[in-house]
TrEMBL record:
PANTHER family given in the database record: UDP-ARABINOSE 4-EPIMERASE 1, UDP-GLUCOSE 4-EPIMERASE
Top-level taxon in the UniProt lineage: Bacteria
Entry-linked InterPro entries: Epimerase_deHydtase (IPR001509), NAD(P)-bd_dom_sf (IPR036291)
Family the entry assigns: Belongs to the NAD(P)-dependent epimerase/dehydratase family.
Pfam families found in the cross-reference section: Epimerase
Pathway(s) served: Carbohydrate metabolism; galactose metabolism
Segments forming domain NAD-dependent epimerase/dehydratase: 5-243
GO biological process, one term: galactose catabolic process via UDP-galactose, Leloir pathway
Name under which the protein is recorded: UDP-glucose 4-epimerase
Gene3D superfamilies linked: NAD(P)-binding Rossmann-like Domain, UDP-galactose 4-epimerase, domain 1
């Protein structure tokens, strides 16, 4: 049965991959986005289908959120300020990522929404003591962005206890893929490497390149979001890691991209501190609760990225 789904931040990177999947399954989409970074051309194409409505508003305004929520069955909350911007402007980060999220969750509870899927983040773990990182591991958020994602999960639990609303918080690991912004904190390294490689220059790696990330393709992220909308209520109200379960070192990434671009260079290394040294998701809960597992490996995904949009 089709639903009316409110997607906040739906004109952004992840939203641009989620909305088409919602349309494929027959849903109607109400897209709420302030369009500060959204692709108006792409949104116009969606609106032209007659099944997407654009609400050009900001989640920081509670009244606007309540109006957008009216008549919606489900919510995908993607709107956020990125991790790097949160350190540059903590006030804005708290305003959008905490106050804005609270507005969305409160409105969802008030309007009888049955499911909220929240774009949380693996950054809530901080620098982990062990790999793979599991949902029940200790949390140690290190920036205003990370604190906000943790707070968002707690706010969801609060409102779910006081309403019929259920929720899934997807802790995304290092998302990459077509349409990503060149300033994205954990994927800007990809853009940096590819730009240098296409200029015939060697990629420059911070430290020894031993720091690792769990790179997960945005298509697989979007699949997880849509699958989370359909989880039985009895199995909801919990966080779920979305990654590949494979850690790729920055040095390995550089060599993968060298092969993808097709140049004959060797990486260069420079001493520099890194915020988080290792990342790898335990994805057993995603398989158990969502029936989800990744379908795009890093080598295939990076080749796709190089061939499609980055340059």
């Amino acid at each position: 049965m089709s639903s009316t789904v409110l997607v906040t931040g739906g004109a952004g990177f992840i939203g641009s991959h989620v909305v088409p999947l919602l349309l494929e399954r027959g849903d109607r989409v109400r897209l709420m986005d302030n369009m500060s970074r959204g692709d108006r051309g792409r949104v116009a194409e969606w609106v032209a289908t007659g099944r997407v409505e654009l609400v050009e508003q900001d989640v920081r305004y509670g009244g606007a959120v309540h109006r957008a929520m009216s008549g919606c069955d489900q919510v995908v909350h993607l709107a956020a300020v990125s991790i790097n911007k949160s350190e540059a402007d903590p006030y804005e980060s708290v305003d959008i990522n905490i106050v804005g999220s609270n507005n969305v969750f409160k409105a969802a509870a008030d309007h009888g929404v049955r499911r909220v899927v929240f774009a949380s983040s693996a950054s809530v773990y901080g620098d982990p003591d062990r790999l793979p990182m599991a949902e029940d591991d200790p949390l140690d958020p290190l920036t205003p962005y990370c604190v906000a994602k943790h707070t968002g999960e707690q706010l969801l639990a609060y409102y779910a206890r006081r309403s019929a609303m259920t929720w899934i918080a997807l802790r995304f690991f290092n998302v990459y893929g077509p349409g990503q912004k060149p300033t994205a904190y954990y994927t800007s390294v990809i853009n940096h490497f590819v730009q240098r490689l296409r200029s015939g220059e060697a990629p420059v790696i911070d430290g020894k390149g031993e720091q690792s990330m769990d790179f997960v393709h945005v298509h697989d992220i979007a699949r997880a979001v849509v699958m989370a909308l359909d989880v039985d209520a009895a199995r909801a109200n919990l966080p779920i890691n979305i990654g590949t379960g494979i850690d790729t070192s920055v040095a390995e990434l550089a060599r993968t991209l060298i092969d993808a671009v097709g140049v004959d260079v060797e990486p260069q290394f420079r001493p520099r501190d890194v915020l988080v040294s290792r990342r790898m998701a335990d994805i057993s809960r995603a398989l158990d609760v969502l029936g989800w597992k990744p379908t795009i490996d890093v080598r295939t995904g990076m080749q796709d990225l190089v061939d499609s949009e980055i340059g």
